[in-house]
Design brief:
Distance between the termini: 71 Å
Order of helices and strands: HEEHHHEHEHEEEE
Low-confidence stretches: none
Strand order of the largest sheet: 3-5-6-7-8-4
Helix content: 25-40%
Structural class: alpha+beta
Number of domains: 2
Largest sheet: 6 strands, antiparallel
Mean pLDDT: 85
Number of strands: 8
Oligomer: single chain
Length: 202
């Protein structure tokens, strides 16, 4: 008997939902109770069966709203624990971090100064991203060809974000080693350091 009730609740969860993204959290608003309709069609053939299981079918459908409410409640807590404008959310552990060249204008074998990177995280200052200006810098205005220099010719690999954040950021390093571009959770952040995080002599 219990397994039948659980099955009815599980089928009742099926619904046609509208999906939307709020603060990088996928929310599903249930609109049509597909599972309830399926159960009604299957159970209504025998007298009394639908009446017996109807409340459990609707309980399953209403469970979708409980999940929606839980997701909405969790958003402010997630932003409080994992602020998306704090670099320490994206860079917590740099022990296994390394630097690779992703554009020919960068040094051939760049070396990341991990200690300097971690030390400077609290003092990093956020600056504005000049997308249009940076894009224009990459192209020669006279012939439209791409220039040899790239503003972010390096990428940091092996950095761990804050545990439980679910983030997998891309971290690009500026050519002078004093700036990073963090790409993650649907946004981009640009920070500058006082000292270069690329070891000298590279």
């Amino acid at each position: 008997m219990i397994w039948k009730i659980l099955l009815v609740i599980a089928v009742g969860l099926m619904s046609f939902s509208i999906h939307w993204n709020l603060f990088d959290t996928l929310l599903k608003l249930p609109v049509l109770p597909l599972g309830v309709w399926v159960l009604y069609g299957a159970l209504n053939r025998k007298e009394g069966r639908w009446d017996r299981y109807r409340s459990f079918a609707w309980t399953g459908f209403l469970g979708n709203f409980i999940f929606l409410a839980s997701a909405l409640i969790s958003i402010p807590f997630h932003l409080l624990i994992y602020p998306d404008d704090d670099p320490s959310t994206y860079i917590t552990n740099a022990e296994g971090a390394s630097l690779i060249r992703i554009h020919q204008s960068g040094a051939e074998e760049p070396t990341l100064d991990r200690e300097r990177l971690v030390e400077q995280i609290p003092a990093m200052r956020q600056e504005e991203i000049y997308s249009a200006g940076w894009y224009e810098e990459m192209y020669d205005s006279s012939d439209g060809k791409r220039n040899r220099n790239e503003r972010f010719p390096y990428q940091i690999l092996g950095v761990s974000p804050k545990w439980g954040s679910g983030l997998d950021p891309l971290i690009y390093v500026e050519d002078d080693g004093k700036g990073i571009l963090l790409t993650g959770s649907g946004n981009q952040l640009y920070y500058r350091f006082e000292d270069s995080i690329i070891e000298e002599g590279m």
